[in-house]
Amino acid sequence: MTNKKIVSANSMLIITDHSSYQDERNPFFKSMQYGIEQIIGSLVNLSHPIYTFEVEMIAEVARRLRENVQKVIVGRDEAINLTLVAVLCEGHILLEDVPGIGKTTLARALSVSLGCTFRRIQFTPDLLPSDVTGLSWFNQKLQEFEFRPGPIMSQVVLADEINRATPRTQSALLEAMQERQVTVDGVTRPVPRPFLVLATQNPIELEGTFPLPEAQIDRFLLRIAIGYPSEAEESAILERFRLSDPLPELQPVSTPDEILHLQEQRRQIRLEDSVRDYIVKVARATRKNQEVSLGASPRATMALFQAAQAWAAIHGRDYVLPDDVKQMAPHVLTHRMMLSSQAQLRGRQPEELVAGIVDTVPVPVES
Prior knowledge:
Distance between the termini: 39 Å
CATH class of the largest domain: Alpha Beta
Number of helices: 17
């Protein structure tokens, strides 16, 4: 019995027979296209193709989440879209901006919209690692030790003012962020999935803070700066919050299981070899730049790859364009780069260098 697969091509459902379409002389094989670029023959050769309805599902869920968050957050389309990219990649976000512009509100609105559990950790110099991960305590009634989970054992964790904690406490996040597990007293426990850490830090007030080590900064998928609202947006904020805070009334529009499914589908977003090579060249160019003392790591290359996939998916495409890579590069690479002392003296910023690198690396074009 031959294997059959249902695929979607140009809004039509076609049942393809693997044995009959392997022959490239078949005119049907040559004529039908999947999506925009790929013919059915290339789809048949994929072990896990992503179907049109799956891409549409990702875009639809992203739209629902965006609109739901915007019931609380006025404007800020790009910041919200970037948080959705992190959700699809199950990556972490570094929110670096001045106080009072909605970083905490964005994190809370996102967790409610996702239907996920939420915990907030206020980082202070006296915070201990066990305050983050949890601890084992002796239950005198049962005469045994019991584990009391810390706030890190939640699906969405807001690490507020993360740079105010000591390096010892900051390092308590490393295992959870990278391995999605927590080890306490020699016992390793998985964190609930999906798992997302949103860490905030104030780039202006640095007195009494502990800069994040490069090993930890590299584990944040994206760095997002929300920025001040426009005059019209600030006026809309006053009107929206005039009578009550809309956040407590916010309802979930997705579920953790749905998000986990979409994360798997995001992995199937296609990249042509030329686009993949373009990502590698952009990352490697940061290491060769004379104004950069520490360039992007291979983890950063992988992050750019995944973020470009997610950006394409939330815009309803099952393939990645070079423009997706250009869009994601500043948010993925800038916080991972260390400028040379000469570049710092000249007042250069990582954003400028990334923009220059992206402009100089040749963009792949269709042959």
